[in-house]
Amino acid sequence: MNEPDTPFEEPWQAHLFALTVALNEAGHFTWSEWTALFGRRKRTVDETYWAVWSDALLEMLERKRLCGASDVAALAARWQAAARATPHGQPIALDAAPAGDA
Q: Which ranges carry the Nitrile hydratase beta subunit-like N-terminal domain (predicted)?
């Protein structure tokens, strides 16, 4: 049987996992808080595993007043603008987004 090299199907899933671990290690929430929230959402929401993970992390960020959904949406828009402004094959840098382009 061929086992995958990683439990992640896409790079963003690994990044999301790493972000969650980093926030936990920085003391923003305990792992017990995280697993309780994620487990509850996973049982009650009919979404993919990583969609539930993402939604649960956003909920945790809002609960802990670290940021809200509008902050995440604004940052995502900035990254998308930076991606559009970055030449193909070059690393995307957030500061590559033109001012006001979101």
A: 5-82
